[in-house]
Design goal:
The structure holds 2 protein chains of 2 kinds.
Chain A: H1 2-14, H2 18-27, H3 32-47, H4 52-67, H5 76-83, H6 88-101, H7 113-120, H8 125-138, H9 141-155, H10 160-176, H11 181-191, H12 197-213, H13 222-231, H14 235-248, H15 253-269, H16 273-289, H17 297-313, H18 317-333, H19 335-339, H20 342-348, H21 354-367, H22 373-386, H23 390-409, H24 415-425, H25 434-447, H26 452-464, H27 466-470, H28 480-491, H29 499-506, H30 516-536, H31 542-545, H32 547-568, H33 573-595, H34 601-608, H35 620-623, H36 648-652, H37 662-670, H38 680-696, H39 738-754, H40 763-778, H41 808-811, H42 837-847, H43 849-861, H44 865-871, H45 890-894, H46 900-922, H47 925-945, H48 952-970
Chain B: E1 4-9, E2 14-19, H1 25-41, E3 49-52, E4 55-62, E5 65-71, H2 77-95, H3 100-105, H4 107-117, E6 118-119, E7 122-123, H5 128-154
Helix pairs in contact in B: 4-5
Classes of the chains: A mainly alpha, B alpha+beta.
Family (chain A): Belongs to the adaptor complexes large subunit family.
Subunit structure (chain A): Adaptor protein complex 3 (AP-3) is a heterotetramer.
Protein name (chain A): AP-3 complex subunit delta
Chain lengths: 971, 157
Amino acid sequence: MALRKVKGNLERMFDKNLTDLVRGIRNNKDNETKFIAQCIEEIKLELRQENISVKANAVAKLTYLQMMGYDVSWACFNVIEVMSSTKFTYKRIGYLAASQTFHPDTEVLMLTTNMVRKDLNSQSQYEAGLALSGLSCFISPDLARDLANDIMTLLSSTRPYLRKKAVLMMYKVFLRFPEALRPAFPRLKEKLEDPDSGVQSAAVNVVCELARKNPKNYLSLAPVFFKLMTTSTNNWMLIKIIKLFGALTPLEPRLGKKLIEPLTNLIHSTSAMSLLYECINTVIAVLISISSGMPNHSTSIQLCVQKLRILIEDSDQNLKYLGLLAMSKILKTHPKSVQSHKDLILQCLDDKDESIRLRALDLLYGMVSKKNLMEIVKKLMIHMDKAEGTSYRDELLSKIIEICSQNNYQHITNFEWYVSVLVELTRMEGTKHGPLVANQLLDVAIRVAAIRAFVVAQMALLLDNSHFITGFSQRASMCEVLFAAAWICGEFSEFLTDPKATLEALLRARVSTLPGHIQAVYVQNIMKLYGRILTSSGSDASMDEDMVAKAAVEEVSEMVAARLPSFVESSELEVQERASCALQLVKFVQKQLTKGQAAGLGAEIVSLFDGELNPVAPKAQKKVQVPEGLDLDEWINEPPPSESSDSEPEVQRPSLFATGNAENAYVESYQSSKPAELTQEEVQRNREARQQEQACNPNYLKGGGKLESKSGMFDVAEVPVAQLDLPVALKIPGLASSDHYLQKQKQTSSKKKVSTKKKKKSKKHKESSDEEELAAPLHVVNTDVGEMPEGATLSDGMDDDNNDLNDPHRALDVNLDEPLRAEETLPVRSHREAVKFEVTGEKKAKKKSSKKEEKVKKSKKQPIMMDLLQNGEHTNAPTEEPSNDFWLDHAEYEAMPDTSQSKLQVEENEKPKKKSSSKTKEKSKEKKKKKEKKVINEDSLVSSLAVEAPTFVPDLKQTMSNKDKNVLIVS
Amino acid sequence: MMQFMLLFSRQGKLRLQKWYQAYPDKTKKKITRELIATILARKPKMCSFLEWKDLKVVYKRYASLYFCCAIEQDDNELLTLEVIHRYVELLDKYFGSVCELDIIFNFEKAYFMCDELLLGGEIQETSKKNVLKAIAAQDLLQEDEAVEGALREIGLL
């Protein structure tokens, strides 16, 4: 026997302990995996030994390896063995290992139930504490159900150390076993007034977490929290309470009104930034919930904004960030008060910290107006030129578009300006937002009918100079813009000044390097243009006679027929198919031309693309009714019984028609729609406006603005360089510059002030700006939501799919004010009855019924509103929020019977307390805490002496009015 | 509620991880990897917060160690920074000017400390003194057992 012991000890001397393992790993950096594999082998051997200390050592090492990312789940049993040791040292190691390696799905967990229960009820508070800490990491629904009662017993332990752990643990239990909430809640509520501040703050934490998810059930606790808030000086707890109020106020505006004052006081007095920040957040929430009718409404919002400005101006980046974050919350409801700090926010755009710049960008979104939009966008464009990182530049780009397009282009007065901004954006290198820009171009062209002529002219230029966009491979995503350009030119081809040139641009050889879905759109629009040219040159019967027109048509047909085959050879099915169709069509036209029977053919080709397609509402697809008898979940063909049923094959399945691309689908839905007819007048006006614009544009080449470069190459040297002082150099003649509009806007506004002074000289100019002002309403945005399937309305059943069924907080949404029913108890069971739980549960419930009654009585002693209900007239509606009385206004309150006496009583009790608390403010922190405890004690005395529940309401009232007095004296 | 806490070195080595929300191991590893890469890539003068998926990440660097916590959307960032700071202070008190090596070689102590400060992602004890007292008492228990064990082995007990 002794010999074996000695031998065992000898062996242990050669074992590696944890330190050896760590050191070994550090010394074997080159062959770490090999070393660790070797260690794991050793650990496996050690785990097989009887000696518990060897095992514990092995488990400790495993915990370390687990942290390094190695799988140690195979050792679960050994972890439990170590956990069940009677020695605290090993138990500690065991529980640590368990908390790190176990999770709620671990299979061996069911073996731990009785062991954990034993530890929870251990004599040593530290063993029970270990069990609670460990359990919080791996508690499963089963464990929660089985141990709920034991944990609840710990809530009334004599040791604060255990009480506070148990309180926090209860939250985890509720999440896993929601049925525990109602039976356990009364006791949890008691803990809010626990003499130990740690327990108290733990209880606040738990209730705060619960209430944030289901606020309406916790409204009745508001009085308790209000009292805590006005008396406590523990910042950790105050923050939680204030956060809790932030969750409650949206449900009860009257609470918000009461909160404003204490919160503003805190904002003024506190030096802790975290508390200040929380107060501001809650005040914002309050202000959002109170729609109107507060006299000091604007002062408190001003106070918030003022404080936030101080935060933003602080040199600490963290405060700056949070200041901006909170500011954006205010922005939603009180944009005006934020807008006055525009300077500060624009300044933040120059910050060296990217996350701060992004926050500032968010704020800009709400600060634009019709007046300053152009200016702000200009600033952002300059930033974009300077931005070093692509991700930030992408963010800027998408923000520009987001800002401009918000609320159906609400702030845009001049769409020509917006289109030129978009065109300028196409020149951004290496951005991933090409599709976004393309989408905007399409959207504007479709929705704003009056702008089409301008867009078409710009798009034709883009197509003509497409090599600028496709020139570098890194601009890949920007080529999506060509997709939009091609479609717009084809669809609204009646606005084209030179359809033939555009057609040529579409047919260029380099087009074949574009992505397939763009080529497909090209082909389609080539045909639209072709049809347009056919109809426009020599319409109908006259064509056969008019030899010039016929020659022109033949030339065009020749060109199309010659270039289309390159599309036919495309490897993209979609392009191939469309191109072959188109080619046959052109060949047919050619044949008819030679026969001299081409009359009316143009019109017929145009009619191929006839018909208007309306925008489709974004959710229309979801609304399509499933036809009866169609089961969408049924297999059409049984899936092959492959074992490797990864999702990969599905992902890799090529989308035949490139439908993966949203833009494509979008455009296709519009294809062949007939362009909306513009009246002659409108066309005329557009033309005039355009000519005016061209005249003012120094970069505009007279005579069409297009270079007849047949080679398709565009010589940059030929661009006349005029006015180099323009901040953005224009590379493509004829492309509008957004700056131009900005200048124009400034001119107009300045002119308005100077009025008729220069009337004669600037008459033309003036006309144009007048025209622009007129044109603004002309740019009517079609804001229709789009078509929906028959019988479907926009709103029905929209939000259904937003609710997450797995959210544990759904189950915790229970009425906590309702008295407990007889069957509502926590499952209590001893070791042997474990299996028969369902059967014995009821019996137990009966046995425990006496205990339960006690519990109910206990809870009645608490000053909850239920008693008030039973006294008062409101008894008929027990399910209603019994707390309503807390929100009664003073006058309403006084009308209530039977309370004036107790009110007086409390007034007396209240005054000394107030004094003491105001004194405490002046004293040092240490003392504060002590005093605070005293106050709480006094308080509990007061409540136990004074009384019946109803006094609670006046008590609070009193607190508030006293506060008033305090403030008055101070001010 | 805090979702998890990570400690890692400037070289990107994980030194401590505590998860208060159940994730599968695979996800945990992925999150850890991504977060470490994101945070290490940030410049020193940048603010300590970043939005990451639907969580907010609060981190702070102390010497060569990064302390990083993930919290929910409506949690208070500054409070989380205070929790981190409190944890560092506690470690500092316990180890006596703590350094990375202390945490590497006594990682279990660091965990124990964490368990006394936080439970289930909520702050459990706001008083430094109480935390240190609890830890000291438990260490004492261990020592007593060690002495007892040694005596028993020699045969004195």
